Input
Amino acid sequence: MNFQLTEEQKMIQQAARDFAITECLPGVIDRDEHQKFPKEQIEKLADLGFLGMMVPEEYGGAGLDTISYVLAMQEISKVDASVSVCMSVNNSLVCYGLEAFGTEAQKKKYLTPLAQGKKEGELYLGAFLLSEPEAGSDATSQRTTAEEKDDHYIINGVKNWITNGNSASVYLVIAQTHPEKGSRGINVFIVEKNWPGVKVGAKENKLGIRGSDTHSISFTDVKVPKENRIGEDGFGFKFAMKTLSGGRIGIASQALGLATGAMERSVAYSKERKAFGTEIMNHQIIQFKLADMATRINAARLLCFRAAWQKDHNEDYTESAAMAKVFASETAMWTTTEAVQIHGGYGYVKEYHVERMMRDAKITQIYEGTSEVQRIVISRSILK
Output
């Protein structure tokens, strides 16, 4: 087992680190405060090739491995999770879904500009539309319908909590075509945002990742050509589950980055802050907090790398991705909370960043499968 990064992986890691510090750190507090979508940062991510990292070069991607993606996600998440979640959705859910299951025509028309992050000079993002007002963790309870007509489908319904909701140009929409078949009657469709009947709702006012573009999307008699259905009839639920497994690696990496960033700030602060006549790093209670942070973060990192390695080697990574996500997200929540505690009163004010990291960390336990759902996935795997 080789724990050493390749030279290419080190270069990707350093490029992401430099980007995070020079492009994401300036203005991050203001973007969080005013819920500003980081369009400029996302456009520069596209220029770096970070919006289609694992997509083959023939479809406009960077052709990198999943380990490189984990490294880049971690570095960017250390600074701004609102930027990294946009990157995660475009890479892990949208581009992967199209690459793995799309037709050649779908790949040429949609995957190539999505991997490049631009089309005709304009930002071109994707969004993944699964959750509904009454279908979150229970993804089988889809109320959005896709009625089959002659050469098209008619989609009606509402989707909630959609990352990149207003900024995306393309949606991957999960909808029920044959209710009597349950999960086997669900399909997935490529829907363009500017088609008649598509409406973007108000931006959600969130606890964390406030710069992320989160909206509800409604569909009223939206006409979708049959060639925009991905996979065979009834493949939609399997598509969602297979795609979300890869997405969980991305969110685990985001959580890992949040935890790492919070620990790094805590270490730096402990060397500067004095209490009882000495720097607080000399107090054992602080040392033990930092030791526990480092231990949990390293364990989370190994879980992320394992899942990424299995994905790159075409092994079943369903269980390992779930383990990585549940452990990394809980590590992020614990570490950022402890980081606030180490900073004391300063941790509670925005300029020290850790309060934002704590707020951002919470969502990693919820989206792309809650911690409870991950435990269901894991238990089913070990009990089968």
